[in-house]
Amino acid sequence: MPDAVSDLPHVDKAALPEMISPARTALLVIDIQTDFASPEGLIGQAGVDLTSAQIAIDRIEELLALARKVGVTIGFARVVTSPDSDSIALKTLMERRGRPGEEAICRAEGGGADYYRVKPQAGEIEISKLLYSSFSGTDLDAQLKARGVDTLVITGLTTDCCVDSTARDAFHLGYHVFLVSDACDAYDEQFHIHSLNAIEKNCALLTTADAVKAAWQR
């Protein structure tokens, strides 16, 4: 198994500009919100080290700024929940694990679902979801296709959960999928590495924030 992200195969930088042409590409930002990314959110308050997540968000900010300049479609996805909308399957899973109540994250009331550090601008795609995949129960696919998008550059949290689920569903829907390996993060480095490894082997190509910026600057 790979010991570091740098050990994983990444797409050739020279070939990347043609693959992620701004005219047909969307930059997708997943779950950069208070409960998942802020020290004041539920994950941060539980004592999880969010240092690597903050570094990933730094890179997402850079990618957003450039994407907006060159005309890349931008989409934001976030989890927004309420007690009435909680998944029965998720509630039951947590109960069976002996951890009832842990599904109560990213509540619409209380600020946990709020964007953190980044947020959509007027005219950008924005979807709310209840669970992991940005496509499940949303109109993200329709919005992307209406804009002529067939390629996704995916960033966000967490690599092993919502990023993974979104990437796999995107591939099943016919998109060309790229994961920005240093603009995604998990709360465990090994989860991050192994998830990238599994996704790359099955449904996506890996790239880096610097490579994407170089491609779009051309």
Automatic annotation (TrEMBL):
Keyword Transferase on this protein?
no
Q: Name one Pfam family in it.
A: Isochorismatase
Q: Which PANTHER family match?
A: ISOCHORISMATASE-LIKE DOMAIN-CONTAINING PROTEIN, PEROXYUREIDOACRYLATE/UREIDOACRYLATE AMIDOHYDROLASE-RELATED
Query: Isochorismatase-like domain location, by residue?
Result: 25-210
Q: Which CDD domains match?
A: cysteine_hydrolases
Q: Which UniProt keyword terms apply here?
A: Hydrolase
Q: Which InterPro entries match?
A: Isochorismatase-like_dom, Isochorismatase-like_hydrls, Isochorismatase-like_sf
Q: Which SUPFAM superfamilies match?
A: Isochorismatase-like hydrolases (SSF52499)
For molecular function, the Gene Ontology terms on record are: hydrolase activity
Q: What is this protein called?
A: Isochorismatase family protein
